[in-house]
Amino acid sequence: MTxxxxxxxxxxxxxxxxxxxxxxxxxxxDLGQFGADRVLIVTDPGVNALGxxxxxxxxxxxxxxxxxxxxxxxxxxxxxxxxxxxxYAKDGRWDAFVAVGGGSAIDTAKAVNLLTxxxxxxxxxxxxxxxxGLAPPGPLKPLIAVPTTAGTGAETTPACxxxxxxxxxxxxxxxxxxxxxxxxxxxxxxxxxxPAVTAASGFDVLCHALExxxxxxxxxxxxxxxxxxxxxxxANPISDVWCERALTLLGRSFRRAYLNGDDLEARTDMMLAAxxxxxxxxxxxxxxxxxxxxxxxxxxxxxxxxxxxxxxxLVPHGQSVCVxxxxxxxxxxxxxxxxxxxxxxxxxxxxxxxxxxxxRLPSVLVDLMRDLDVPNGTAALGYTEADTPELVSGALRQHxxxxxxxxxxxxxxxENIFRASLRNW
Length: 425
Fold this sequence. Notes:
The chain has 425 residues and is an alpha/beta fold. The protein has helices at residues 27-33, 45-49, 52-62, 79-89, 103-117, 122-125, 195-214, 237-259, 264-284, 288-298, 317-322, 325-332, 337-347, 360-371, 388-396, 399-403, 411-420; strands at 17-19, 38-42, 66-70, 96-101, 143-147, 159-164, 169-174, 182-185. It has a 6-stranded parallel β-sheet with strand order 1-8-5-4-2-3, sandwiched between helices.
C-alpha cells in the first residue's frame, strides 16, 4: 500500500433534497417513502404558531401516518433543552422524525434521534475535549429536515450544536450519521421571517461559505486511516464550487431579502445559498469566526436582539459569528490571498476594489453589516475589553474548529481578534 505523510483523499456527502415553492405540500408522500407509521414533528412555538407543523401533520394523516408535534424547541438550543426534548420523545416508538424550523429545531431533532436510538449521557457524544466524542453505535431513524430560515444549512450537515449552560460555551456532536435523510426546502415558508432574523440567518450562511472556502485544505492535513476520517475534512474541490455559488447568490440577493421580505426571488436565492453553503461547510468545515462565536453566545448577559423572543438574553448565532469575521479574515488573509480576494469580488465586485487587497473582504463584510443593521462588534452585544480573557478561553476549547483554520490561532492571536472586534466601524 502506498504510504503518504499528508492526506490525499477527501470525503464529501450531502442530504438528498427536494427544493422549490410548494415542495412542502408533497411531504406526506415523502414520509410514506420511508415506510413510517408513527412520526414526531419537532419544532418551536413560533413556527408552530405559523401552522406549518400542522400542515405537515395533516399531510402525513392523508398518507395514513400518525404524526405528533413537539413544539418546545429552545431558540439556540441548550444541553437542557435537548434533554427535555429527548425525555418527551423517548417512549414514543417513533419510526421517523421531521424537523421544522431553523437550525435550532433541526439540531434538536438530530439529538432526539440519536439519544432515543442509542441512549447515553449527552456528553458521551459531545465533541472532544468538552465531551468524549463517541460515535453513534449504528444507523439512526429517518429524519426529514424542513428549514424555515435561510441560514444554518443544518438540513445538509452532520452536526448538532448547543449551548452547554454550566460551561458557558457552545459545542456539539459531529458524525455523518446525524445528517438528515431528506431536506424539503420551500422558499415560501421564509416569507414571514422578520428583518433581523433574515439578517442574522443570512450572516450565518455567509460565514459558512467564507470559512469553508478559506479553511485549511484537506491535502495539508495529516493522513487519516479509513476509519478515522471525519465529516469535516477541510477545503476541497467540491465544497469550493458550492461555496463560490453561495457567495454569488448572497451578493445578489442578501440586501434585497432584508429590505423586502416579500421578494420571492431573493428569498429563493437565500434558501439556495443556505443549502449550497451547507453542502460546502458540511464537508469542508468552518473555522475562526465560528470558534469565536461559541463563547460570545454562551456568555451573553443581557443582550436581547430585535425580532427574537424577548424573554431571555440571546445572541443569535449569525450575529455571534459575523461580529469577529472582519478581524478573523484579516488574520487569515496571508494564507490564501487569492481566495480572500475572490470571495470579496463575488460578494461585491465594485466595493471590493476600493481598498487595498488585504482589506477587501473585511471591508465588504463591514459594509454589509452596516446596511443590514447588525450590531457593531461585541461591544454592542454587551462585552467589554475586560471580557477578552474569558472569550479567548472559550474559543480555545473549540479544537475541531481551530484545526480548520488555515493559520494557527493561539491565545495571542485570538486575543487580537476579539479586541479588534469590539467595534467593527
